[in-house]
């Protein structure tokens, strides 16, 4: 076990350059499958922890005094864009290449992470393991994680009743946030803290809460879906099935193998996008005050519900639907160009395009596009999305405002979902939220394990800033 190549390590990075990557992943996984003792995720993380704490201690001792950049006043007023000030272990976002999870690109994750029996897409259980440990789990470890999440999936009665009492006109993301906040009642961390615990025990309780929270999210999310759009009935979790199957099944799509595969891909690629995005940062920030994982994730979900962030997936489908109604069957370059200009001239953003960090097409968009090419190449909305992909970058470049004229993750997801009959766009961000929990909670566990401090950057009034810059 200890000899495993750590993904993201320099040894792994140099091995990526060699051509036989797939063979090495297979050998690596094979070796782990047959290793003497199958560890649980918690055991493996605990085993790694002393080394991680030492690594950080040494890094700070040797280099803690070094200046790592400069900050302009424009950055301060410009949403802190590009200011390097956060630690995020699970993923790093390169503006040209896109996201790498512990050093692995999305195609590499699709290749390396364990699949469901008969499935081709990676399981989000495996990504959770990878994000927390930096290692690709064995199939057995992923099966065990599926079983553990299924076993923890029961939702307290009072939380179900809270969801049931929400008016159907309350946005599903607000309902999700209410339910996740209410789970605080069950928090192992909050209870242990109230009793008084040693700091060294924080991460164990955070781990337990995070596992419970992730496990319960599909049943909560499905209840919201069934209440708002259907008959309010949610089928129970099947204890021998994977997380994505169960979620798809609870939404009413368990019989559709392609939809289940889509859910596996969707829940894997929406997890994590380094630490500075609103949902990840909000979860981390609130968590830094030692709020429980439930309260911390709820903060992240509230941020995800904003239209410039996760709600963009809802906005995209609504915008495409309006475009379809306007252009009809005319998908000519001119018709799409005109529609894009109508949006821009109305002072609105083109949803699903642009990004605060990325400067190329989002690989999460490409993964979904490849799924569509494989499973639904003739879908009329997919054809429209493809045509927008061809035209929008040119129009946005001509418009001259956005620094990135290419599509992000949200430009594609709705079109896949509507193809299978999940047409309720106001629900789409809830799916994103379930996935995001799997991405941001590993960092919260790591934060507690390494003793990350409360976050507290410095602010000044405009008057004070003026005085400061006048002296420079
Ligand atoms: N359409 C029109 N204008 C856009 C644009 C778009 N898709 N993207 C950016 N712009 C505009 C900005 O509104 C800004 O205009 P002002 O100077 O008038 O304020 C200007 O271009 C510069 O913005 P930027 O530096 O390129 O982008 P930001 O880092 O400020 O914002 C983002 C990034 C994603 C909020 C922005 O591109 C946007 O609003 N996109 C549409 C919404 C969207 O798809 N959000 C989802 C992002 C992914 C996610 O988090 O889920």
UniProtKB/TrEMBL annotation:
Gene3D superfamilies, per database record: Citrate Synthase, domain 1 (1.10.580.10), Cytochrome P450-Terp, domain 2 (1.10.230.10)
Domain of life per record: Eukaryota
CDD domains, sorted: ScCit1-2_like
InterPro entries xref list: Citrate_synth-like_lrg_a-sub (IPR016142), Citrate_synth-like_sm_a-sub (IPR016143), Citrate_synthase (IPR002020), Citrate_synthase_AS (IPR019810), Citrate_synthase_euk (IPR010109), Citrate_synthase_sf (IPR036969)
GO cellular-component term (any): mitochondrial matrix
Reaction catalysed by this enzyme: oxaloacetate + acetyl-CoA + H2O = citrate + CoA + H(+); propanoyl-CoA + oxaloacetate + H2O = (2S,3S)-2-methylcitrate + CoA + H(+)
Gene Ontology molecular-function annotations: 2-methylcitrate synthase activity; citrate synthase activity
Biological process annotations from GO: carbohydrate metabolic process; citrate metabolic process; tricarboxylic acid cycle
Keywords: Transferase, Transit peptide
Active site, per annotation: 309, 355, 410
PROSITE patterns with a match to the protein in the record: CITRATE_SYNTHASE
Assigned protein family: Belongs to the citrate synthase family.
Matches recorded under NCBIfam families: cit_synth_euk (TIGR01793), PRK09569.1 (NF007128)
Protein name per the record: Citrate synthase
Record organism: Pseudogymnoascus verrucosus
The encoding gene: CIT1
């Amino acid at each position: 076990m200890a000899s495993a190549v750590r993904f993201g390590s320099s040894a792994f990075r140099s091995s990526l350059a060699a051509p036989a990557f797939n063979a090495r992943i297979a050998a690596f996984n094979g070796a782990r499958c047959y290793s003497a003792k199958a560890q649980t995720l918690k055991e493996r993380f605990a085993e790694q922890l002393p080394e991680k704490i030492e690594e950080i201690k040494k890094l700070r001792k040797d280099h803690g005094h070094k200046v790592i950049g400069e900050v302009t006043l424009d950055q301060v007023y410009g949403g802190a864009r590009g200011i390097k000030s956060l630690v995020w272990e699970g993923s790093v976002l390169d503006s040209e290449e896109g996201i790498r999870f512990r050093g692995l690109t999305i195609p590499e994750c699709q290749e390396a992470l364990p699949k469901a029996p008969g499935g081709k897409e990676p399981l989000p259980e495996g990504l959770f393991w990878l994000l927390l440990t930096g290692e690709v789990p064995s199939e057995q470890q992923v099966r065990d994680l599926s079983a553990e999440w299924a076993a923890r999936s029961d939702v307290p009665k009072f939380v179900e009743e809270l969801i049931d009492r929400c008016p159907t006109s309350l946005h599903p993301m607000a309902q999700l946030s209410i339910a996740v906040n209410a789970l605080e009642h069950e928090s192992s961390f909050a209870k242990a803290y109230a009793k008084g615990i040693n700091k060294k025990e924080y991460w164990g309780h955070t781990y337990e809460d995070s596992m419970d929270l992730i496990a319960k999210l599909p049943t909560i999310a499905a209840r919201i879906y069934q209440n708002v759009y259907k008959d309010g009935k949610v089928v129970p979790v099947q204890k021998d099935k994977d997380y994505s199957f169960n979620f798809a099944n609870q939404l009413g799509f368990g019989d559709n193998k392609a939809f289940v595969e889509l859910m596996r891909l969707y829940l894997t690629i929406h997890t994590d996008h380094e630490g500075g995005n609103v949902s990840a940062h909000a979860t981390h920030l609130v968590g830094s005050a030692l709020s429980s994982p439930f309260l911390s994730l709820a903060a992240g979900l509230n941020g995800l519900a904003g239209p410039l962030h996760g709600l963009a997936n809802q906005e995209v489908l609504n915008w495409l639907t309006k475009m379809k109604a306007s252009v009809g069957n005319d998908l000519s370059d001119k018709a799409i160009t005109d529609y894009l200009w109508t949006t821009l001239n109305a002072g609105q953003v083109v949803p699903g395009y642009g990004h605060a960090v990325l400067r190329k097409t989002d690989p999460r968009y490409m993964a979904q596009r490849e799924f569509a090419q494989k499973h639904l190449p003739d879908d009329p909305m997919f054809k429209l999305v493809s045509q927008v992909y061809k035209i929008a970058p040119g129009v946005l470049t001509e418009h001259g405002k956005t620094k990135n004229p290419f599509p992000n993750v949200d430009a594609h997801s709705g079109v896949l979902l509507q193809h299978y009959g999940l047409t309720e766009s106001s629900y789409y961000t809830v799916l994103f939220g379930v996935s995001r929990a799997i991405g941001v909670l590993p960092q919260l566990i790591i934060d507690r394990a390494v003793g990350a401090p409360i976050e507290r950057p410095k602010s000044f009034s405009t008057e004070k800033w003026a005085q400061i810059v006048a002296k420079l």
